[in-house]
TrEMBL record:
One of its GO terms (molecular function) is acyl carrier activity. This is Acyl carrier protein. InterPro entries: ACP, ACP-like_sf, PP-bd_ACP, Ppantetheine_attach_site. Keywords: Electron transport, Fatty acid biosynthesis, Fatty acid metabolism, Lipid biosynthesis, Lipid metabolism, Mitochondrion, Phosphopantetheine, Phosphoprotein, Respiratory chain, Transit peptide, Transport. It comes from the Eukaryota. Belongs to the acyl carrier protein (ACP) family. Pfam families: PP-binding.
Length: 181
């Protein structure tokens, strides 16, 4: 077997000669699934911007057929599918809009309004969790955990104990995320 042989010729030869054990059959199936997933066109790529679709269009000539084989003793052709090198490499990444004090405040208040022990009508940004809303320290811990989930970073326990109002939470998050107006 030559090293330079393309995968389309190598896989059937390996499948015919070397697949004797059940483990080898399973490995061939896994390899087949991987190759199939590479040959499928990406939904993001197809639904992407017109510039990306225009760039991929001429790449259709670069598609090469890849054959798949999976069987214990005999080779079974499952079909030929094109593999696009552009389709594999093109990805669309997105980012959230930049945070502002207003968006942070809105998200904090939204999370607090969803908390079942807080009456949304009594909630204002200056409400103290224990004095005004009647929450205990365990409730405060749950609120801080919800804020950690919402904003994607951990708040140390020493800092979390000091956050007693929504306003303080907003200011803490703004300081951590470098949001200033």
């Amino acid at each position: 077997m030559r090293v330079a042989e393309p995968l389309t010729r190598l896989l059937p030869r390996v499948a015919r000669r070397e697949l004797q054990s059940p483990l080898s059959v399973m490995a061939a199936r896994v390899l087949t699934q991987c190759l199939r997933s590479l040959s499928r066109p990406s939904l993001r790529l197809c639904s992407g911007s017109p510039a990306v679709r225009a760039a991929v269009g001429p790449a259709a000539a670069l598609h090469r057929p890849v054959s798949f084989a999976a069987s214990s003793r005999r080779t079974r052709w499952l079909g030929q599918s094109p593999v696009s090198s552009v389709g594999v490499l093109c990805r669309q990444y997105g980012d959230l809009p930049p945070l502002t004090l207003e968006t942070i405040k809105g998200r904090v208040m939204y999370v607090l309004k969803l908390y079942d022990k807080i009456n949304p009508e009594r909630l204002v940004t200056s409400s103290h969790f224990m004095k005004d809303l009647g929450l205990d320290s365990l409730d405060q811990v749950e609120i801080i955990m919800a804020m950690e989930d919402e904003f994607g970073f951990e708040i140390p326990d020493a800092e979390a104990e000091k956050l007693m109002t929504p306003e303080e939470i907003v200011q803490y998050i703004a300081d951590k995320k470098d949001v200033y107006e």
